[in-house]
Queue: 2 jobs
Job 1
Amino acid sequence: MDEDNHLHRFGTPLEPLEKDEVPAKKPLAIEDQIVKDENGKRRFHGAFTGGFSAGFWNTVGSLEGWTPQNFKSSRGEKASKVEQRPEDFMDNEDLGEFGIAPQGIRTRDEFSKESEQEQRTGLRKRKPMQPQVAGPIPGVPVLEQLLRPVRDKVAVRILKSMGWKPGQGVGPRQTRKEKRQATARNKREQYLLDHYGDEGLPSSAKQQNREDAADDEDSEDEDDDEDITFAPDDYEPMFYTPKDNRFGMSYSGLSRAPVLSKSSTSATPMQHINLFGQLETATKQKPFSIRGQAFGVGAFEEEDEDIYAKDDMTRYDFSLADKQPQKKKAQYVQQRHVIDGFSEDKSNITHNKPFVIDLPRDFKPRNWLQRRSRFTPLDAERARKIAETDYKKAGLGRHDLNPEQRAQLLGESQVKKNPFKTASSVSTQEQQERSKSLLELISAKSSNFTKGGLITTAGEELPAATVAPVELSKELKESNTALQAQAASKTKNLGIYLIDSEKRDYLYNNFLIPASSQPSSGFKPFLADEAKQQRYEKFLAANLKDDKEITEFLAELQPVTLSLWDREMEKKEFMQASKIYRPLAGLMLDRFVSEATVQEGNAKQDVQPEEKLKIVMKRTKVMWKPSALLCKRYNIAEPFGGALPEVENALKGKAKMSIFDYLETSVNTKANFQTPTIIPKHIELPKQQQGQQQREQLTLSTSKPTPTAPVEEAEVKPPLEPANSTASKPIFVPKTPLEHAVEAARDKPISEKTDLFKSIFDDSDEDTNSTAVAQGEPQELQRDAKIKEMQAALGLPSATATSAAAVNLLRNNSPPRGIFAALFKPAEEQMDKSTEPAPPKFAPIAGNKLKIAYKSREERLKNDRELAMAEVPQVDLYGPKLPSQLKPTEVQAEASIDAKLQQLWQQHAPKKRKAEQWVERTLSSSEDSDEDSTESSSDDSDVKAKKSKSKKSSSKKSKKSKQKAKKKSKKSEKSKHKSKKKKSKH
Amino acid sequence: MPAFLNFNCSKTIDCKQGAVRAVRYNVDGSYCLSCGSDKKIKLWNPVSGLLLKTYGGHADEVTDVAGSCDSSYIVSSSLDKSIIYWDVATGAPVRRLRSHAGGVRCVCFNEDSSIAISGGRDNAIMCWDIRTRRLDPVQVMKDAKDCITTVLTNDHKIFASSLDGCVRHYDIRVGELTCDEVGQPITYLAQTKDEQCLLAGCQDNTLRLLDCESGGLLSEYKGHQSADYLIECGILADDAHLVSGSSDGDAYVWDLLEAKVLQRIRISDNGGVVHSLATHPKRQEMLFARRRDMYVFSTDLQIEEEQL
């Protein structure tokens, strides 16, 4: 323990070994070590285990296998042409130092030393040319192979430009004598070099060399011609390397370069033979012998000690010069980061002295190899220079001004005149008055371009009134004086006295001031007419808004001679002009507000709030039609049964959505100008009136079916009751005169049908009148009485009121309230008015009526048949059967009369009618329905009611049924007054 | 009438969705929704402040949102001119409805959530049949002369307030449009629970209580600042108190009858406009939106009851 204290420990102790553990004897053997590339892959394998490998098992695949390239859309890159380079297809290793395309600084092709072979043949590696498919001969064009542009190295080109020609030497031209001496000297040097090498070239020899030259000079002096000079001979100059060692002359020690280094192969023949280098024969005299290590050094091996080296005496130099002089070649080692053809400077002699290069002041570095198109824009400096020189071509100072400046000086802008203005100024007063409106508008506009504005130095036109005029003129004045002073100084030297101060002032007053100094003028649209312009200015100054005021104001100004029309025109012109020729600033002011004003406004608002405005609520109500679906979703019945007038739905007819729907403000639509009205036909009348109306309608319907507009369900229902009551009457329906006419006219040509139409028109009026007025009173009384009787017989509750409204128990009979009160009153009045005579507005609808009349008849006939059918007990028919004892006897009696009449009528009826008889049900009894229909019972009417109910799908049909019902009620009466009617009919 | 109890902040939620444009309760007040300027809608639990779901799909700021009566759908309006009908559970947009020509400002459901009503900057109110696949509106009402700020509905009426200073009642039952002109731009409209009155937040720093039946002006409430903001107002669940946001960062509670300020709720000390609010449908609870945050305010007593 004590010993431990005395010991000093350095470093970290090794882990104590376990007892059973046998320490690894050796570190990893060198042959077991594996060289890996930068990607961590093993590239070199043993000769028997694969040798050299690249990629993935020497394939281009990968562990995952070959996967096709994913589709990559290049749609976005269509525009940008991607140029592919060979490098895109190379691996990183290829671009590396030892790859096929090493990256790094290299000499350009033109500068690099080219091989002799190339030079001789002129063949040079060319960039692969694009094979031209266009030509007839495939491959590289022959002409291009034959004719080859001469391209020299840069150095050669430089020499050539200096007067050098191939085959000549480099240097100053020599006289014949000099040349001779030089050739002799060179020969000698070459000899010495061959014999002794450059190191061995003794200084004495050099000295001698010079002396010899002198001797030659002396000897061949006689035929010397100083004038003729020759280019020096081409010879390879010797380079003297300074001796920096203390070895003997021409002695070089043993090279320590390793076996693998290239230098060892060629530079020192006495070294080991490298397996990778070329075999070397020792000397020509000696027998061919291979030396060196047996198989060289393996890739994984380090160079061994020189075990096989024979250290024989030949390896030592014993003499200084007797050996074949060996020319020490420049050690050529491919070094890293050294351009091909160059070598690192080994010498320590460095010129540290930096030389300051005095560049010319206007020197601009430029890559002369880079070609420049003549279309590329000039750099600013050059352009300016060119522009300058262009102006200064003449060399006179006045050309220094550019055209704009000159124009300014000469006041050319003012000189410009326009033809319209002169025309108008020439014309007489009357002409002016006449053509004023048009001409002046034009002239005003055109003159504004020149008169109103100033053309500034910047070349843009400034309207005179846009900027504060005083400021502008001041500014202009300054700039102009500066310009003029400049011009004056330029021209002074030439002795031309162009502008003196007076003139300058003159110029000012004449050209510059008038346009800008009048603050009120601004634009002068009516300059052609002085008086008018003045009036206009006054008008502007007054700044009136109200039309009436303007008229009054102008009336004062305008001369008495002016006609009223002219005055009005002038007023309009002025107003137009004031709108159009507002200065730009004014226009802008309209649209933009400075922040200060906004803040000001805010401040004002803050002050204001004490003064409170009383909110007055206003309530307006208009009709609005909710869509059916909306009502449905809200679970609300549609107001007025959905009968509200449909609002012109912009979205419906047009395209689904258009921005133009919104462009027009909501008040501009046509619908906004239509006050919503309620169509009277939808209004349910109070009980009494309705009853009355019903009755009247019944009377009217005898001769003319009223072409009423669609009637809604609520109103359709009630007529069934009266139908019920009247249905028991006989079914025979005598033809109305109109029907007869229609029947008759069916086969006639159209030309003859005029009678028919005429009869229809006449009929509608006359017939109604005759029936309603002449027979109205007694008929109605009779009918009422009859209905009463019938109802009594049927046991119906309402004895007096037979109208639909009376029967409808659900109807709200209370007088209209709220909005209804307002809405319905006028309608009722209208109804009252329209009831008594047949409304004339229905009359012209002839065609319509014809159709209705005819159809109703047809319908009627059909119903007759159905009724007849109903008498036959059927399983198809259902519904409660009315008790048979309820059958009114009186009605039956009447019915029998009618039946007889019908029979009679049918005998006379045209045969054609048979053809159009048709029934919905396929029953055998239907054939003789007409004959069977002598009897009708309340059962029938019930069935019929049901039928009509089922047919109420369309309003038209329902209407028909209603009409039919009415007709039925009439039938009995008709039959009574049959004789009378027949007379009237025929 | 119960005595007024002061509101206290019970929760502050940083919505993390940019400026909060609107806050809304769902139908029973158990959840709340916030619309962000980051085009997203977030569903929260207002009690715990838990973020439940985020709904993204709008192309511009979301301006308003409404939950359906069964809380299974959401309809939202955005400045991208569309309204989106969302499925709450999946968070997927079920339908996207475009017909507005301008940004949509407000949206609401009818009572059974079969119709969505939206109003926009294009001055149009559109009713959408949301249950069907129909992509165009059932009805378009283009009566307003300026931007629609709020749409409300009850079982038979649609109310719309507009910046043209009018409140329009579309009575479906009668088929009538009643236009009450207030004269001041109306920034928000709230309806009392008894559906008798409307509370209109006007641009002139005033709330106005309007009578639905007669169209008369019942009362005015002042005190807050609306400046140039679209400040929302609300009626508390008991129909006795009104509340409005303010541009000075406070919220004001009025007594409905006496029209005097009962409480000035200081929401934050460092400014920000309290522009959106929502009142709980049942409890004395409110939501406020200010800048990026949502605040839940309630009366203490209520909270205690809840906890007990």
Note: Chain A has five domains: 151-247, 259-345, 389-591, 628-673, 684-985.
Job 2
Amino acid sequence: MRNVTLILDDGSRFHGKSFGYEKPVAGEVVFNTAMTGYPESLTDPSYAGQLMALTYPLVGNYGVPSFTMEENGLATFMESGKIHASAIIVSDYSMEYSHWNAKESLADWLKREQVPGITGIDTRELTKVLREHGVMMGKIVFDDEPDNVPTANYCGVNFVDMVSCKEVIRYNEGAAKKVVLVDCGVKHNIIRCLINRGVEVIRVPWNYDFNKMEFDGLFLANGPGDPDTCEAAVVNIRTFLANPRVRPCMGICMGNQLLSKAAGAKIYKLKYGHRSHNQPVRKVGTNQCFITSQNHGYAVDNDTLGADWEPLYVNMNDGSNEGIRHKTNPWFSAQFHPEACSGPVDTEFLFDDFVKLL
Amino acid sequence: MIDKNIKKVLLLGSGALKIGEAGEFDYSGSQALKALKEEGIETVLINPNIATVQTSEGVADQIYFLPVTPYFVEKVIEKERPQGILLAFGGQTALNCGVSLYKEGVLEKYGVQVLGTPVQAIIDTEDRDLFVRKLDEIDVKTIKSQACETIEEARAAAVDLGYPVIIRAAYALGGLGSGFCDNEGELNKLAEKAFSFSPQVLVEKSLKGWKEIEYEVVRDRFDNCITVCNMENFDPLGIHTGESIVIAPSQTLTNSEYHKLRALSIKIIRHIGIVGECNVQYAFDPESEDYRVIEVNARLSRSSALASKATGYPLAFVAAKLGLGYGLFDLKNSVTRTTSAFFEPALDYVVCKIPRWDLGKFRGVDRELGSSMKSVGEVMAIGRTFEEAIQKGLRMIGQGMHGFVENKELEIDNVDAALREPTDKRIFVISKAMKQGYTIDQIHDLTKIDKWFLQKLHNIIVTSQELRACKSINVLDNALLRKAKVQGFTDFQVARAVGLENEMDIDDAIMVIRNRRKSAGIVPVVKQIDTLAAEYPAQTNYLYLTYSGVANDVDYKHDKRSIVVLGSGAYRIGSSVEFDWCGVQALNTIRKEGFRSVMINYNPETVSTDYDMCDRLYFDELTFERVLDILEMENPHGVIVSTGGQIPNNLAMRLDEQHVPILGTTAKSIDNAEDREKFSAMLNRIGVDQPEWSALTNMEDVNAFIDKVGFPVLVRPSYVLSGAAMNVCSNQEELERFLKLAANVSQKHPVVISKFLLNAKEVEMDAVARNGEIIAYAISEHIEFAGVHSGDATIQFPAQKLYVETVRRIKRISGEIARELKISGPFNIQFLARDNDIKVIECNLRASRSFPFVSKVLKINLIELATKVMLGLPVEKPNKSLFDFDYVGIKASQFSFNRLQKADPVLGVDMASTGEVGCLGDDSSCALLKAMLSVGHRIPEKNILLSTGGAKQKAEMLDAAKQLKDKGYNLYATGGTSKYLTENGIENTRVFWPSEDGTPQALDLLHGREIDMVVNIPKDLSAGELTNGYKIRRAAVDLNIPLITNSRLASAFIHAFCQMKPEELAIKSWAEYK
């Protein structure tokens, strides 16, 4: 295995070995504390442009399932059609894997999709650096090619545009209720959660003006990067909210941020984001708490929400916003991921709530 | 938020440590009491286990050293009138007791509210039928099982389900009376045993080979749920989880599988209605996502203690708070102190639990592992690679292994069979098989262990081969050395692999490797266990060392304020909770005196490894290498080696050579007491007597020595092949048989033979000295004569039947030894006393097993005193006269023979008990009765079976037999005993040995449940004597009939229960004995 160095913007260096595709790469370095789910995370479009460090040290144990597609165009086991993270950074890659459902090793998959993977990194120490300094840009450089140094930007880049579908796709066509899903980088499990509940999903590109379409409810999906680069979507959502025909709306993650922006709120970048399976949230004004899966670097500023809106969920660790709702209309959103994949499935009932409203 | 009417709460402990119920409940009870105290609630504790931390001063407000049985608990309730009771913190013992109090209406009668999980929910999880029905209601799959009440029903059920089947006794702890049956013959045998423990026996389809996965789940009364941890068994289903190597978090589950089982756990806990903590065990198909729920434990368990230590989440503390009515959202994460207790820990390390067995201590025991638990303790190893964690763990179990490789070669006749039929050695059989070239697929086929684990183990083999290929340290490159360290190799393993052992002494070789790697910058780093994988800053003191990292999480101040206490390691026979108590007392004292308390220990069942017991906890190895690593970073003011039993004691000399400041008695003095030759020479010098002994290297010398001193002799081999480590031999035949079987006598492995004194009393001196002057002491006396290991003996304190002259001599001799060895700190001397003739058997310059017992009876904390001495602080000599109290403490031993199939439940010079209790009484009989009831004896109803051994013992038992007869008991006696009793005018019914023809047969009476108590005293240790007696003793154990095998103890117990009824025993708390 070739020796590599991860170089952060503050000059910190971490030495490791390459086990994935052998090419230098740059991106925003983020950490994820989940202990399972590397195939799901790697294919989550929200990781576009990021070098994903896993704090759980043992990775690759159960290999990778086959990358098959169902008839409806959704991946059987993955969250999108390809790996979106720019690289994966681990402490102890498992060269051998063992699982009945595995078709190949993580290394082989990374190589096939031309994504670098590095191992032997003290990802706990890396996490502490990111925690203290905030997320940073970083690059993975091969020690025997010291001059081959890649560059990249993260802030201000419209990653949503890169990962969103380019044309309208329909799932479960002909069902009684139709839901428009604004694809900012949607995870397939959101679509699965909707069609499993018997609705037709009309998946539209992130900036598509769906207001002219015939539908019963609006769904705002997750997506990567800075929500401020998605103004076109916010404009469309505002139009929807202003429509005298009030129809239900639910958002997830980026969807929460876009709905909040449409409701007048401001978004800020978190120091190092929430990326894990163990984020505790509390439903505001209740004793109900949930363990949630999260993956976001930006958050809604509660104080800037419009007068007709209120926080729906709050993060129990740092008090940040975890969802909003309209005081009278059936519009709500969650910053966390009720569709899980990967992560706990405790909040999947939100899809039931949404479908019931249609 | 919480119920303000609850002002006083009763907590039930788990009693003596036994297989299946050990130190974990000291930990969980202690945490619960802490949680209640914080709320200003008055606490009452019932627990006869006097060596625990929870029964220490200040932990509970009132402490009762009484049996945890419905009768005594009701008495305490009647007296104390608590508003609430906690049942979930004292294992199955407390749970069963609580359920029975509830069913009998006792709790209702006294208006006692069960806090936390409602009793109905407990019953729903404990009764197999109800449990299956309950989970059927929510479509959760359980193991297909049929509850049977007769053996015929069990046979029919097995045919219906198809063999292989598993048999379980309902309401039994740790799988007691359960096992696998491949055919009807096996079923008949097992079912009979299971029915002896429970009226209900369950027959289930066996799922051998499936994965075994556990989740620890928490729920508050607002229905908020979390899973704190999941765990995966290295060994597939079929081996009791207490017997299995366990890994946390799970390693071979995908996200989908992990969360499928997690969601099911939450669904189950909600449906059952747990408030607090519970454990859900699954069988999981290795070929699909199919599962079965094995069981739900509606209480804190061994697994929850492990999960607590593995994650840093204080499960017992939180469960207690939830029982009071708090929501999870009300509580803070006690590690970060800023984030919420409602969260699920994220680990950035891997944890490996390995059981510790002591099967070698038992004669005849079945070594095969199965669905019933046999291990006596466990260790938890933490690493950032699986290889590192498992190699650490294999060293921690303390069975002479250096890791997965570089051990002494095991001799295995049939590797295939040894892989297929798991024993306590299986992991080492895997190592051997890999070295012999077995493929991973072959090993998997034989063991069904997931290939991922086998592949990781194989990595260690590969590295070992690479090291061996080096042949010399000079060609060992740094990359390989680092790789080996990352995989958990010790310097010892590296030294042995590269062949350094051939060039120099191994201790020197270790230092060569150490210096080499330090010069190459290959050193371990310290990481925190912070529950959130570094996501939030945490001021945690919970640490481990790893080579898989580049930076420390701790900034060392180098202020020389640290005092490092070395812990006691895995619980095993001979060293368990009592040393944890000693360690905790040392930590408390260090803290109180303004020093930084630092603990090194790796036993997840302990209180000393709890998150707030010290200022810094290194959850790591107690090997010389690791301790030195830590001391180099910690740079302490001093190290305490005398409160953790033998493991730290053994490190003293080598640490001293590295100029480690050892507090208290010097390492040289420790060596002078440990080294038999040096100690003996010293005793001769100061004119103190000892039993004649000699270290011998060949049979001629052995015989010559015995000609001189005569039989019986005590034989201690220095190198044990198998079986018991020491034995008493009464004749030439026994001696030769034992030496041939057990020992290898050679120049390199001498055997120590000493004269064995018959009918001598054994007396213990536990004391604390300062600069050679004794400042506090406790003299206690064994009820049994010498020959029963001091750890198995019944001990009374203060000594009740010693001559004043004997006591005076013992004090004088102890004073001389303390002076001679310049003892500063705790020590223990064991004496033999016959008439006024006193001999010293042994001297340990460390705290002994009986320190907590004597400290609590005396109400002087000897460890606190000793710690102050070691810290060089002024201490006042307590002026309390030792004989000046009007009560007696009795320490009785708990045996776990019922868990150890086929083992002969006879006592000898090697220790066999797994735990102990200590009870107080206004006189010896009163204390003895409480103690005996606490370790599971019952007052017999009417029929007693006697076989009272040799002439001497028969005579000793005569008075007791008379008393029994006078009390109206029916006596049954075997041949010799019957004759003797009849000759002495005591009416009895003769019964026949298994080897004799004639009826009634003793065994038939036992199987017919006609006998309430068995007194069976072996004459000697000859083969024939053992076979007959063995069958009776073993039947008594298997049928759960109380058994006593020592005449002195039997007499004392019989005397006690004939003299008074349990109802006459005073219900007094510890504080009421003044």
Note: The two ends of chain B are 40 Å apart (CA to CA).
